[in-house]
């Protein structure tokens, strides 16, 4: 029941993901951060097999860093997306990763961009995208309300509308979501949308 | 002697590995490099031999970053350096991936030295012809560190060291003039050591400063020229002070 979705606005890109870590009927935690900050201006929101998700995204992150050290400049968003897709494709007919990815980035010359990369190494450059059961609801909401060049307020409102739909219409909907943003000032956490807060641990 | 210097894997009767010693000769022919450890900065300096007019000097970086908190300068065969630097950069990221922690300066020095040693004990290969000066801040204690490796694969930590051309003169100067410094004083000490053996001027020196907060920063030519001017002024003042008392006698 993992949900990841994202969209491109005016000079920025947003990625939202649920934050539940579930194993069968047990909820391990409700504040798992599934949106990795790849480098100063890239975000990687991932959903899928828990082990694969962490292993694969960390592997991509370290390789992106290595490129930057080797070449003195960071990878472009398109290059990072193609690299990620290439790694998925290589592993696909050997030992595939079960990870779906939305890669958002900001390049100085191009502006914001969003890439849809699914577990069988499909790569699409998109304005809006979503994965998981939640995608049925978030994609419909975005189809209705999205337009290119949305302001940050409009985009966050749309994200909140999607979250409301997921919460009301998905049978076992995740309680909490994290929203991260990337723009000319870099990639960073924007907000959490929580309905369940972990209980305060009493101090001894 | 001719029979014992071909293959790296053959000791000579008096216990030398000639190939390793010849590699050290290659280092001695390389451009001068100096490293000085301060209390809050570490400075690396290298001699820049005159760049050919048509060459884009920005593509020849002699002081490189291995990670956000580690940098390296070397003297010797630059092509060998490229290979070692690439392996070290991969190891820095690999370490972060497997143990979720950045490398310590000692770890990555040990790794580079280990690589250099491997190539002194294999058939059909030759040692890396370079000595590396590795600087960085310990990610946990925040302490600054300077290490040196050589073609034989030995490494050790230093407060200040030099390698490459005329390294002995630079090391003598450092031994005479080293004291605990911080910030700009450390930069000046490194430049003064380099100026002992290198023609004066920002065109012939490349300096990089590593701080804990900002990582590695390469100094601009104008900045280096300014510090060189300061140093020359101090030298001139010292000379004048020495001459003045003898005039009154």
Automatic annotation (TrEMBL), chain A:
Swiss-Prot/TrEMBL keywords: Cytoplasm, Nucleus, Proteasome
Keyword Secreted part of the UniProt annotation: no
Cellular location(s): Cytoplasm; Nucleus
Gene Ontology BP terms: proteasomal protein catabolic process
Main location per the UniProt record: cytoplasm
Keyword Nucleus: yes
Cellular-component GO terms for this entry: cytoplasm; nucleus; proteasome core complex
Segment forming the signal sequence: none
Protein's job: Component of the proteasome, a multicatalytic proteinase complex which is characterized by its ability to cleave peptides with Arg, Phe, Tyr, Leu, and Glu adjacent to the leaving group at neutral or slightly basic pH. The proteasome has an ATP-dependent proteolytic activity. Non-catalytic component of the proteasome, a multicatalytic proteinase complex which is characterized by its ability to cleave peptides with Arg, Phe, Tyr, Leu, and Glu adjacent to the leaving group at neutral or slightly basic pH. The proteasome has an ATP-dependent proteolytic activity.
Assembly and binders: Component of the proteasome complex.
Family: Belongs to the peptidase T1B family.
Protein name: Proteasome subunit beta
Automatic annotation (TrEMBL), chain B:
Compartments it resides in: Cytoplasm; Nucleus
Superkingdom per UniProt: Eukaryota
Keywords: Cytoplasm, Nucleus, Proteasome
Domain Proteasome alpha-type subunits per the UniProt entry, residue ranges: 4-26
PROSITE patterns, sorted: PROTEASOME_ALPHA_1 (PS00388), PROTEASOME_ALPHA_2 (PS51475)
GO biological process: ubiquitin-dependent protein catabolic process
Main location: cytoplasm
InterPro entries per UniProt: Proteasome_alpha, Proteasome_alpha-type, Proteasome_asu_N, Proteasome_sua/b
A GO-annotated cellular component: cytoplasm
Subunit structure: The 20S proteasome core is composed of 28 subunits that are arranged in four stacked rings, resulting in a barrel-shaped structure. The two end rings are each formed by seven alpha subunits, and the two central rings are each formed by seven beta subunits.
Function: The proteasome is a multicatalytic proteinase complex which is characterized by its ability to cleave peptides with Arg, Phe, Tyr, Leu, and Glu adjacent to the leaving group at neutral or slightly basic pH.
Family: Belongs to the peptidase T1A family.
Name of the protein in question: Proteasome subunit alpha type
UniProt lineage: Eukaryota, Viridiplantae, Streptophyta, Embryophyta, Tracheophyta
């Amino acid at each position: 029941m993992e949900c990841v979705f994202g969209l491109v606005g005016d000079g920025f890109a947003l990625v939202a993901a649920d934050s539940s870590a579930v194993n069968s009927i047990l909820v391990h935690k409700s504040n798992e951060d599934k949106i990795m900050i790849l480098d100063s201006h890239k975000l990687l929101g991932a959903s899928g097999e828990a082990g694969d998700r962490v292993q694969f995204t960390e592997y991509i992150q370290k390789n992106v860093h290595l490129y930057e050290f080797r070449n003195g400049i960071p990878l472009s968003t398109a290059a990072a997306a193609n690299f990620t897709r290439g790694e998925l494709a290589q592993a696909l007919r050997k030992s595939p990763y079960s990870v779906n990815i939305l890669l958002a980035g900001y390049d100085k010359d191009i502006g914001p961009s969003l890439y849809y990369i699914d577990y069988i190494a499909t790569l699409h450059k998109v304005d809006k995208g979503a994965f998981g059961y939640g995608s049925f609801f978030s994609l419909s909401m975005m189809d209705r309300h999205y337009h290119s060049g949305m302001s940050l307020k409009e985009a966050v409102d749309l994200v909140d509308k999607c979250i409301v739909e997921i919460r009301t219409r998905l049978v076992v909907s995740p309680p909490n979501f994290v929203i991260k943003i990337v723009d000319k000032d870099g990639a960073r956490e924007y907000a959490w949308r929580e309905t369940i807060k972990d209980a305060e641990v009493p101090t001894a | 002697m001719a029979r014992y210097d071909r293959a790296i894997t053959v000791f000579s009767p008096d216990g030398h590995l000639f190939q390793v010693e010849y590699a050290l000769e290659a280092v001695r022919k390389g451009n001068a490099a100096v490293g000085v450890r301060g209390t809050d900065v570490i400075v690396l300096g290298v001699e820049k031999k005159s760049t050919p007019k048509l060459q884009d000097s920005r593509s020849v970086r002699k002081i490189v970053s291995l990670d956000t908190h580690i940098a390296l300068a070397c003297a010797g065969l630059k092509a060998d350096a490229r290979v070692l630097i690439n392996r070290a950069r991969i190891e820095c990221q690999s370490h972060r991936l497997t143990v979720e922690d950045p490398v310590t300066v000692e770890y990555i020095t040990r790794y580079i030295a280990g690589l250099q040693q491997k190539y002194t004990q294999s058939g059909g290969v030759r040692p890396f012809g370079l000595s590396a000066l590795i600087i960085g801040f310990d990610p946990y204690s925040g302490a600054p560190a300077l290490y040196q490796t050589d073609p034989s694969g030995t490494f050790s930590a230093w407060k200040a060291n030099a390698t490459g051309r005329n390294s002995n003169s630079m090391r003598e100067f450092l031994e005479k003039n080293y004291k605990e410094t911080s910030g700009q004083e450390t930069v000046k000490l490194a430049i003064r050591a380099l100026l002992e053996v290198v023609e004066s001027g920002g065109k012939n020196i490349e300096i990089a400063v590593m701080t804990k907060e900002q990582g590695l920063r390469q100094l601009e030519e104008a900045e280096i020229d300014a510090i060189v001017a300061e140093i020359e002024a101090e030298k001139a003042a010292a000379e004048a002070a020495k001459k003045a008392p003898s005039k009154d006698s």
